[in-house]
């Protein structure tokens, strides 16, 4: 079972790379807690703690484990609750968002 831990010191780029390696899907990370139309993507070099706070800090947000038995919807909701950052999971080529009821273990073909 694929899994990895995330905390506020991790950069957006590292999170996206680890997510793709573990689950074979693309992760879209937004500034703040809005992923709707017009939402701004977080900079790859930003630390998650700084994105959550919308300022340049190294907030040590409590780590949490991303596991392959989570559904897309559960992961997106939990991530937003823990970090106050909106994320969305897309297919490997980052072209289409995945359905919320798909388990992360079923994403990687």
What layout of secondary structure does this protein have?
Blueprint: E1 3-6, H1 12-23, E2 26-29, H2 48-53, E3 64-67, H3 72-83, E4 87-90
Antiparallel strand pairs: 1-3, 2-4
In short:
The chain is α+β, with helices and mostly antiparallel strands and 109 residues long.
Main pleated sheet: 2 strands, antiparallel
Portion of residues in beta strands equals 5-15%
Q: Topology as H/E string?
A: EHEHEHE
The count of β-strands is 4
Report the total helices.
Answer: 3
Task: Please give the domain count.
Answer: 1
Q: What structural class do helix, strand and pairing data support?
A: alpha+beta
Low-confidence stretches: 55-59
Shape: globular
Rg calculated over all Cα atoms = 13 Å
Helix proportion: 25-40%
Major beta sheet, strand line-up: 1-3
Give average pLDDT, whole number: 86
Structural features, described:
The chain has 109 residues and is α+β, with helices and mostly antiparallel strands. It has one domain (3-106). 28% of the residues lie in helices and 15% in strands. The chain has three helices and four strands, in the order βαβαβαβ. The chain has helices at 12-23, 48-53, 72-83; strands spanning 3-6, 26-29, 64-67, 87-90. The strands form two sheets. Strands 1-3 form a two-stranded antiparallel sheet. Strands 2-4 form a two-stranded antiparallel ribbon.
Key terms for this structure?
109 residues, alpha+beta, two-stranded antiparallel ribbon, 3 helices, 28% helix, 15% strand, globular
């Amino acid at each position: 079972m694929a899994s990895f831990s995330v905390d506020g010191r991790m950069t957006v780029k590292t999170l996206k790379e680890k997510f793709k390696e573990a689950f074979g899907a693309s992760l879209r990370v937004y500034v703040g807690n809005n992923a709707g139309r017009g939402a701004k993507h977080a900079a790859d070099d930003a630390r998650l703690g700084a994105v959550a706070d919308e300022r340049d800090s190294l907030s040590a947000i409590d780590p949490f484990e991303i596991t392959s038995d989570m559904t897309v919807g559960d992961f997106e909701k939990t991530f937003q609750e823990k970090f106050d950052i909106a994320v969305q999971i897309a297919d490997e080529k980052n072209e289409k968002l995945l359905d919320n009821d798909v388990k992360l273990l079923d994403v990687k073909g």
